User: What shape does this take?
Amino acid sequence: MRPSLHPISADVTTHKPARRLHIQTWGCQMNVYDSARMADALAPLGYTPHPTPEGADLVILNTCHIREKATEKVFAELGRLKRLKDARAKAGERMLIAVAGCVAQAEGAELLRRAPFVDIVLGPQTTHRLPTLVARAEAGERALLDTEFPPEDKFDHLPEEAAPQGFTAFLTVQEGCDRFCSFCVVPYTRGAEFSRPVAAVLAEARRLVAQGAREITLLGQNVNAYHGEAPDGSEWGLARLIRELADRIPGLARLRYTTSHPVDMDEALITAHRDVPILMPFLHLPVQSGSDRVLKAMNRRHTREDYLRLVDRLRAARPDLALSSDFIVGHPGETEEDFAATLDLVQRVGFASAFSFKYSPRPGTPAADRPDQVDEATKERRLAELQALLRDQQARFNASFLGRTIEVLFLEPGRHPGQLVGRSPWLQPVHAQAPATLAGDLRPVTITAIHPNSLAGRLAEPALDAA
Assistant: This one.
């Protein structure tokens, strides 16, 4: 049963004396976005960001359920917070603890049972109710739980005023997933696919750019399944939304989107990569495995040849496009032949970067109950071999930039005096000696050195290399 939530009263939305808020965020960019929105929602209650849990009046753990042992990591951090909370209580002060995100959604009641000192547990779809929950906790209520999927759209209830994100910003346009991959908890923790209306996305993008953002990344669990309602009542896909953002938001210099599903990469979106100059030539396109047998077991709904053909179409549309991907090794039933097919796919595609993991069971997902689990030693060996190949591909991709002149969006000071750090169109960090006044600017940089995880260069005359 959904807990009884009081509506936000005038007292909740009235500015109060400053309180200190610390949010610890695990996981994907979606969680980063949600954490920022929670901070915005709590600002009218007087909460201001605080860099550490020590001294904070409210600590929020915004959790992720994708990684192995995610729940235990949360409880380990809660143990540390309990000691801080007890120390504050002895000093006659109060510290509230909240757990949000996907672990909260999946383990809400268990969290409160094992950690009864936690004041608030809320899921990803109820972040807009956080001010009400905090106000109730401040009034003395305990063990507040809200992990339902409410009928109202949480985005409609977020404050219009928000803290600037900086020169690069995230903007959630889609949430949830209807794909039900065998290994994934997202459909259970984030719910069914939902797309924000076009007008709401455009309004938020305009605000972000007005606050200084030069680059926006559109976010979604399955972002290229976006199907938002347009002002005229029609339905737009992601490609139409990207074109509208590019055409209607002056000052927006770069666009990206993540994370995509190969099945939802339609011709309109491929064409957008060809036609929209501010859509960056870097695409995260998870494949998970190179084996058709494993892909079927994963319920991915595409084959290896489907993926390879899609890569060919994308590169035909945008020859300088670089790809990133996700891989899982040791999915139940994966054989040496299946794993060899994954290595072969990696060799054929060539990735600029990738995320790779050992399969780990998630309670409630179909793969977790299969009897043919792969042993840990085999998973470790396969992961090491795959990661060695991926690291080699990334190194070769980065090395190909030596001597080239590319456009860099400068973001912040580097580690050394007089140094700025920025991002290339392909998401590589780039270091260069440059005045601080160039932060937020796009400038040509000639690459002079390749480091393990970044590029280095010098400011160049405004002449860029062709792809």
In short: The mean pLDDT is 90. The domain at 405-459 is CATH 2.40.50.140 (OB fold (Dihydrolipoamide Acetyltransferase, E2P)). Residues 352 and 396 are 8 Å apart (CA to CA).
